[in-house]
């Protein structure tokens, strides 16, 4: 019998949908995947070269649990330089992706019944990871424009609040939290004594002159309370390498290392060498990719907003759009009624052959999450197909 704990956990919708589109393609059905949030670029060659050198030089054994010193030093340098916050190398731990780092942090922090406030719409995995760690997810709405609403967070704080889990730039909304809202959150964390888990995996993808702010850089108290999580997946197009990290106060990092020592031993040694090369090398590759995402964002949001009934914010960061499609709910295709965003996403997959994720998976019913991490040509074809399919829906009588 499967444990009650796991029986209550939803599988990841984003991961599930990726498997489904792969299956469709294997069966010869052409489908455009705008579902999975993953750079369409290849990992830059100098990073791959470092990995090949690691293999050739026999760098193929277990590393220390927290990761190789070379990589942790490079991360400490990067955090000081770019994020304006200082961490010693023993306050940094490498994990197999930001996803696992967040889960390890939750395991290290949550006692059964502890509450974790999650501003929503939010990434699919947060609520389930909190539940797996024995905690209680407490979703709290963001403002109308998806910005962080510190007053709404304040209203949700109880004596069981252990942490607030934020993600800026945000998946799925594209919101970039302002310095003022993060300052208010940090003050609240101090007053009410909770941690902030800050997922910053999209930090380099900010547009329109917006700046990413790391909440831990705002004060010494904020730094002490924050678990900063980041990853190589998005910044360097390294999703398959499985390489992420967290930085936190020594006490928290030590607890996370206990989890990691029993759970992962250490991250793939080759990927760690690749990560060190990514941080040591020129960052032009990142700037090039971000410039391209920005063009795609403008293009796709423009196309979607021209479809009657679709309303879509451009977002200021990450590589997602979250169009509001409530106008299409209740409409029909050959008698089949679109009851909700799940029906609509299914319809687009079947009719337009475009995979998008239902907003409900991100606690955003009535929306669809669409990634623009795809070529402009792909986005154009997908937008044409979505427009045509939505145009075929008929008002129900
Ligand atoms: N956080 C957010 C908000 C994400 O969208 C993702 C998806 N990649 C992750 C964390 C996990 O990233 P990683 O590949 O580093 O596990
Ligand atoms: N984070 C990406 C997404 O939201 C990748 C898949 C996942 O891990 O959820 O699509």
UniProtKB/TrEMBL annotation:
InterPro entries with a match to the protein in the record: Aminotransferase_I/II_large, AspAT/PAT-like, NHTrfase_class1_PyrdxlP-BS, PyrdxlP-dep_Trfase, PyrdxlP-dep_Trfase_major, PyrdxlP-dep_Trfase_small
CDD domains, alphabetized: AAT_like
Keyword check for Glycoprotein: no
Domain Aminotransferase class I/classII large: 31-386
Cofactor: pyridoxal 5'-phosphate
SUPFAM superfamilies linked to this entry: PLP-dependent transferases (SSF53383)
Pfam families: Aminotran_1_2
Organism whose genome encodes this protein: Mordavella massiliensis
EC number: 2.6.1.-
Keyword flag Ubl conjugation: no
Family: Belongs to the class-I pyridoxal-phosphate-dependent aminotransferase family.
Protein name: Aminotransferase
GO MF: pyridoxal phosphate binding; transaminase activity
PROSITE patterns in alphabetical order: AA_TRANSFER_CLASS_1 (PS00105)
GO biological process terms held by the UniProt record: amino acid metabolic process
Domain of life of the organism encoding this protein: Bacteria
Keywords, ordered alphabetically: Aminotransferase, Pyridoxal phosphate, Transferase
Class of this enzyme: transferase
